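Dear support,

I submitted the protein below through the web form. The confirmation email said the job was done, but the results page showed an empty box. After a refresh the structure appeared. I'm attaching both so you can tell me whether what I see now is the final result or a partial one.
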Amino acid sequence: MTAPTHDRLDAPIYDDYQTGVAGDVPFYVEQARAAGGPVLELGCGTGRILIPVAGAGVKIVGLDISPSMLAVARDKIGKLPVDVQRRITLHEGDMRDFALGRTFPLVTIPYRAFLHLLTVEDQRRALACIHRHLDGGGQLVLNVFDPSLPLIVSRIADGGAPRRMGAFTHAGTGRLVVAWESFVYDLTRQMLDGHFIFDEYDASGLVVEKRYAALTLRWVYRYEMQHLLESAGFAIEALYSDFERTPFRAGGEQVWVARKR
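What the results page shows now:
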């Protein structure tokens, strides 16, 4: 995982089209309140979850490898009430190798950020680093998508043909943006390579700006994730398929709650 890969070119419009997984914000806020803080959020991005946690009265430290995503977060944080700003600390860093000189009762990795770790060695390094940064008995809470093989097979069959993601209004310019996506799946490596195109239109219907972004993820199967956590010194407390705490079922989300042994 290197900085150029994650210094996202779509950072200025990220919040316009990435809204997360249904229910994830209140779920992570509830976990943070229960832990009492301070919380460490890895892959904090533009602060979509970090800021509501701070707004709920919990101190939180955010770490992300992307300078451009952190720049958006800092801009948003600068517009918050001063008391909320004081609860937030941001660090640029790699979740595989960071040293904050303190421990936390709760570490979170929201919105599938763990899948940016593209090798088993990267995953193990990150979990070991997290383990060192947790209080005794502290919790790790994260979510990743549960791979749907029928979906993957259908995407392989279409050869990664572009699909229209949808459209949104650019918050900064007020102009219409139409987003396209293309995913290529590799079953052998459990990898997906995503490519995104964002066409921004003026009032006359002409494309005035075109943005490109790329995304590579390595998906993780349910028992693979369990083995990674347990071998890294965590005891599994819960596994849900969504943020309503529904018992796990294949093809939804993997929402893991684990505790440091």
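Response: this is the final, complete result; the empty box was a page-load delay. The mean pLDDT is 95.
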